[in-house]
């Protein structure tokens, strides 16, 4: 852990050369970020290459299946939010992004695309811009916004030791801002129509374990058994989905948590012998997913005209790990980028720490899967192509109602 911290500090020193984030820090403090301010700061200091919105690869000229795609979450789906924050959790340097469409770092915690990139293309939409990375003009938000922030959790303080992040409730607040701007520019009916036909994708919760529960912050392990901690997290997510519902959100995809007990970080920390997953951690994740799936099922019945699905990424990921050869992976335990046992001891901070070809690896870094895994998981969310992950239906059936 101590050496991890050293790497973190080195990383912070490197990130301190980005003037935008520092200016933002001094002028705005922790919470009041607005895209316009970011825009202003970007235009008054030299923009870093990582802050531009990447072009979307060409896709068939068919009309989009939904008007817009909104993303809420953590590093599993952050596409650039943290580039504007003072935090250790930033993916704005190579080798991050080296296999992305632009071969440039963007803030995505991956060598290439994250699941919401693949899903945006499935919906017939361009890659969704990050809330802090776009101009703040309504035209730039009409096809969706990504509010996700690496290190963020369901609980406000989860991940705070990494620096700034935008927590779940703050992201909902930002969504509220977007919604109000839609109302101002297209009227209440127009905004309600757009939002109710769009999809909101939520992928958050793992940091409440990585950075809160498993670190026993505030003596939490003595006060809460995993089961009641799970219930607590689920109750917060339930409340936030109800908040979204009051803003006319009707289609929601809630992602479960990944098998983080198989991530190189924990294989290294818990001294896995032959790459076997750390079951005490995976058990907690399994339980969380169980609680969330039940909560979502109940909530779906309660909220009229809603269409809320839960996708158990644990199941889909374990299928990939178990049947890795069938999927074309021959490295299951070691990260592509990092240092130490399983390359999970020290975080990925330089291109020299990375393997030459990530496509046969399951894990890109200490905590995050490779582009190849993200593509498979996105296909599962879309139509269960490789294994069924979503309940009570897949995303495709949610947005393209079955023909009678
Ligand atoms: C959690 O922390 C408290 C005090 O900080 C300590 O008494 C307790 O033993 C810790 N629990 C575990 C399981 O480590
Ligand atoms: C995985 O496969 C690649 C290419 O097929 C090969 O170069 C590499 O040595 C293999 N790695 C392991 C750990 O088997
Ligand atoms: C990585 O390996 C895969 C197959 O093992 C191959 O198709 C791909 O071209 C390689 N990528 C690079 C950048 O070498």
TrEMBL record:
Cited InterPro entries: GDSL, GDSL_Est/Lipase, SGNH_hydro_sf, SGNH_plant_lipase-like
What CDD domains does the record tag this protein with?
SGNH_plant_lipase_like (cd01837)
Q: Which residues cross the membrane?
A: none
**Keywords noted in UniProt:** Hydrolase, Lipid degradation, Lipid metabolism, Signal
Checking Pfam families in the record gives:
Lipase_GDSL
Tell me the GO BP annotations in alphabetical order.
lipid catabolic process
The residues the entry assigns to the signal sequence are 1-23
Instruction: Name any one GO molecular function.
Output: hydrolase activity, acting on ester bonds
Domain of life, source organism: Eukaryota
Answer yes or no on keyword Secreted.
no
Alphabetical list of SUPFAM superfamilies matching this protein: SGNH hydrolase
Q: Which family does it belong to?
A: Belongs to the 'GDSL' lipolytic enzyme family.
- What is the name listed in the Swiss-Prot or TrEMBL entry for this protein? GDSL esterase/lipase 7
Q: Which organism is it from?
A: Morella rubra (Chinese bayberry)
